[in-house]
Amino acid sequence: MTLPTMLPTSREQFVAWCRGIDEGPWSGLAVPERITYPSAEVMTSLAAAAVLTERVRLTTTIVVLPSHDEVRAAKQLATVDVLSGGRLTVGVGVGGRDHDYEAVGASTARRWQRLDDQVARMRSIWRGSVPFDGADPVGPAPAQPGGPPLIAGVAGPKATARAARWADGVDGPWAVTGDTGNLARAAERVRRAWTDAGRTDAPVISTSLWYALGDGADDRLRAYVHDYMRIFGEDVARASAESARCTTADALRATVDEVVTAGLDELWLVPTTADPTELDRTRTALDL
């Protein structure tokens, strides 16, 4: 389950979502990132979730790493790993919104290569290497030896091939629309990239789904998707909103079955309301 931090969320709602997700049956809690949007900051939200939960694994979907200083990010993420007792997985990628880079004064140049380099440096920092000669190491040491697992937020074949050199898995923006074959082919491309890179471990493969349940679900889902995607232009926003159709219990169950049949490891549900009663509706819809 993804925290609804893309929406205005009160303290009481945030606490209720974290504790409700931790109660189950979800295995993980995700926090997304955007800058030029009315969303909560990712690292702060992640740290709060770490101390409000005890069981679920935490992940980022995703940190746009080239818009961050990787040493500071390594320190922040190691802190969250300690606060969570070693329950952190870090999803990283280059994102798709230049506005987020511009807003924080970051360059979009060579962002794919910079991502590769940043990942290597973060792992070096987590292993205790100093950031420069004569400096002290950057702490704290992560709870997980060597640092948290890293998931690459990628889609295309070139980006997936790059990720196969350093990632523990892939979180892809593949469409979940009832086309099981499309998802299965996407998962097979990831596994093939791992094989081509000489990897013998299996990649963790995941994707996400916007959904809504309860009264006004259709209008709420489409309004949320339209607003989220309008940065790419009205045509994209409208088409994306029209394609968002997971608004009933039957549709949600069918989607979960689709992801399982396609052979993916995880499905991140993305709620489109900050109302924590959506958790109850979701449990009921999935017979959990």
Provide a brief overview of the structure.
The chain has 288 residues and is an alpha/beta fold.
Tertiary shape:
globular
**Tally of DSSP helical segments:** 11
Number of strands: 8
Distance between the termini: 14 Å
Q: Identify the quaternary structure here.
A: single chain
Determine the fraction of residues in helical runs and give it as a percent range: 40-55%
The major sheet is characterized as:
8 strands, parallel
Class from helix and strand fractions: alpha/beta
Q: What letter string, H or E per element, gives the SSE order? A: HEHEEHEHHEHEHEHHHEH
* Range of strand content: 5-15%
* Mean pLDDT across all amino acids: 96
Low-confidence stretches: none
As a whole number of angstroms, the C-alpha radius of gyration is 19 Å
Describe what this molecule looks like in 3D.
The chain contains eleven helices and eight strands. It is of the alpha/beta class. Strands 1, 2, 3, 4, 5, 6, 7 and 8 form an eight-stranded parallel sheet that branches. It is globular, with a radius of gyration of 19 Å. The mean pLDDT is 96.
